[in-house]
Amino acid sequence: MSSPLLELDGIDVFYGPAQALEAVGLHVGPGEIVSLLGGNASGKSTTMKTILGLVRPRAGSVRLDGADITRTSTPRRIRAGIASVPEARRVFGQMTVTENLLAGAYTRHNRREIAADLDRMYAQFPRLAQRRRQAAGTLSGGEQQMLAFARALMSRPRLICMDEPTMGLSPLLVDQVLDEIVRLNAEFGVAVLMVEQQAQLALSIAHRGYVLATGRIVLSGTAADLLDDPAVQEAYLGRDGRS
Ligand SMILES: Nc1ncnc2c1ncn2[C@@H]1O[C@H](COP(=O)(O)OP(=O)(O)O)[C@@H](O)[C@H]1O
Ligand SMILES: [Mg+2]
Question: Topology of 6-88+155-236 in CATH?
Answer without folding.
Answer: Rossmann fold (3.40.50)
